[in-house]
Amino acid sequence: MDIQVNQRSDYTFKYNQKLARHGWLRLTPAYSVKLVTEMINKISPESFILDPFSGTATTGLVAAEQGLQAHCLDINRFLIWLGNVKCRNYSFSELDDFNQRIKTTIHQCKFLINQECWTPEIYNITRWWSTHTLKIIAALRQALVSEFGEPKEGDVSSLAWVAFCRLVIETSSAAFNHVSMSFHEQVTRYEVEQIEQLYQSILEAIINSISHPLAGKATVFYADSRYSVSNDVKYSHVVTSPPYPNRMSYIRELRPYMYWTKFLDTAKEAGEIDWQAIGGTWGMATSRLQNWDSNGIELSGSLNRIVSQIRESENKNARLMAKYVEKYFYDMYLHFDNLRHNLRDNAVLSYIVGNSSFYGIPVKTEKLLEESLHQLGYTNIGSNVVRKRNSKKELFEYCVYATWKEF
């Protein structure tokens, strides 16, 4: 039976792009501000929200905008930094000082263009930016470092670095219109004045977007969400969207930002982050997957059947993809298992997830996660369709929900 539901672009990252802090940097896997708002709209003021898969901190920022308290978790240091920049309030005095120092930075940039300024070790970097544009961007970066230092936590100068990240991607020839990143045929050449004007306009939009202080408080921490957060923190609500089981690089779109801000130095480090991420398998993560073992933990019979069907399909990567699917749901089981230690009595879980298909074999993510929740003693478990994901009729997003009841 076909499910009749619309694609709902307002429930995707596209809805966020013109919404103040939410639109600073795009990330395709990010879910919609509108969807999160609807999910927490009736939560009481004393609630304590957890997002164990923070990403661009959409949940945390929406919670803070609504006067709520939230903790968010991620394994990516860049996303932790970005999330905390977005969820912070800024005083008039520090912004006034910041604006004066930005003027100094812009002025200094002109004198650095003909010097040898640092550029990241991005493969075939001139495919991203022309040699001429690259010199200007590198000079601007050096001017930022001279005035503010490298990006750091809890400092107003982070706004300058967010604007720089936005500048880097807007002047590049990269296109993120589909799963595999592509490049435009022509690499645009920018002049100094164009770079300066674009950077200043981006920064002005960022400054304007933080004019209204956040009523609540959200903080992003480093953590591996497969394991418990802390023994002394209890949450009343979990609102999140974990990676989907679709073998997509966890940091695909983030790499240019991370290289330029030195949160990432080598492709090996990128593969390491993908390996740590639930559902991430790219580069070294793929080779490590070959030797992965579930340590004897038995999940549902439904998962075993799906894994067997994928393994036995006629495809050269069938065994690898079978193991990928098995590891994804194993990691999510670990997450649900250890999460219980940080939940209040009657805590409510809401997970936005997507189903998948491997070689024509459907992977019903929502049902498999429901089975794990049942195994672990959660109650009031179910799911509903949120939206149709793309032109493939079998791909949807669901909200999987459950309640944790202490016995």
TrEMBL record:
InterPro entries: MeTrfase_CN4_CS, SAM-dependent_MTases_sf. It is an enzyme of class 2 (transferase). Its EC number is 2.1.1.113. GO terms for molecular function: DNA binding; site-specific DNA-methyltransferase (cytosine-N4-specific) activity. The lineage of its organism: Bacteria, Bacillati, Cyanobacteriota, Cyanophyceae, Coleofasciculales. The keyword Methyltransferase applies. Belongs to the N(4)/N(6)-methyltransferase family. N(4) subfamily. It catalyses: a 2'-deoxycytidine in DNA + S-adenosyl-L-methionine = an N(4)-methyl-2'-deoxycytidine in DNA + S-adenosyl-L-homocysteine + H(+). This is site-specific DNA-methyltransferase (cytosine-N(4)-specific). It comes from Coleofasciculus chthonoplastes PCC 7420.
